[in-house]
Every structure is written in structure tokens, then in C-alpha cells.
């Protein structure tokens, strides 16, 4: 029996890469790290952050994208209200935070909720208050350091770079999963059973 998987069965958005669907896993302010269980399509608690830090924005992924870390492309969505986990949000892409996690590149798309008038006037990462970017950088570097992992935020880049990264992740998804989410296909092409 086929089951619904948010990664493979939700569209990435008609206006991608400018406006994408973000599927939120973690609400802003959470100390719980939730993530999509790739097999069941349910949300699971991966771990509780053992520090005073908490997520600076809603955090999730863009469906039907794929990156070198074997996961969909991450997205941080700024919004004036808490977005609950597994909520689908139309997100206007404004930039990207490029990180190195261990030895792997780990891009985080930065977006604003398209239907939130308190943030949707931001069109590029340069429009954000500087403390917003500092908060994002500190969060990712600090919580990893407390887990004895090294992460460095290399740079923040604007929306054109973010569009390019999204397009690359769409291309990689289409090459890796030519038949969508068929488990057999996934195992064959990546060695990873989803």
C-alpha cells in the first residue's frame, strides 16, 4: 500500500525558486529538534538541544529537492506567528546561509512567509535587520559546539544565489528520483532506504 510522504508527494511550488512551499518541522523558539522520518513520512523527535539556545525561525525543508547530505534542502522561514510542525507555508526566498557542517556543505535557504504582511516586504537578505542574521549564525554555531561538533557559517548570500542553489537541488532531486518516491528506486540510486 502506497503512503503519503511530504518530501516526495508535496509540490515545491508553482513559482519556485522565487516562492516555494516550505514544510515546517520545527517552530521558532523550540528546543526540540524534530525531523521528517523518511520511511514513514511522520515527524520524529531527533533530540532535545541541551543548551539555552532555541530555533531563531521556523525550520523545515523544501519538498522535491535533494542535496549532497542525502536530505531535502533546508529552509528557515521568518514569520510573526509561530508556525506549527508539518504546516505547509508559502515562503518568499530572500537569501541563503552557507554553512560547513563537519566537512559537508549545508545550505539553509532564508525566506519570509509570503502571506505575513509584517515580513513579506523583505525582498532580499540585505533588507533584514543585522541582528536577525547574527542570531541565525550564533544559533547554528552554538548548538553544534555544545554537541562537540564543528560548524562554521561561511557567508550569507542574496536571493539570486539562493535561487541558483534551489535550482541545483531540484535538478539533483529529478536525477536521483526520476520516478518520484518509489522506495525501490531510492534504494537503487542512493543506497539509502527511505
TrEMBL record:
Residues involved in Mg(2+) 2 binding: 74
Names of the cofactor(s): Mg(2+)
EC identifiers of the protein: 3.6.1.1
Entry binding sites for Mg(2+) 1: 69, 74, 106
Compartments it resides in: Cytoplasm
Principal localisation: cytoplasm
InterPro entries, per database record: Pyrophosphatase, Pyrophosphatase_sf
One Pfam family hit: Pyrophosphatase
Top EC class of this enzyme: hydrolase
Catalytic activity field: diphosphate + H2O = 2 phosphate + H(+)
Keyword Transit peptide annotated: no
Positions contributing to substrate binding: 33, 47, 59, 143
Signal peptide positions on this chain: none
Keyword annotations of the record: Cytoplasm, Hydrolase, Magnesium, Metal-binding
Oligomer status and interactors: Homohexamer.
Role: Catalyzes the hydrolysis of inorganic pyrophosphate (PPi) forming two phosphate ions.
Entry's family note: Belongs to the PPase family.
Protein name: Inorganic pyrophosphatase
Organism: Hymenobacter canadensis
Gene name as annotated: ppa
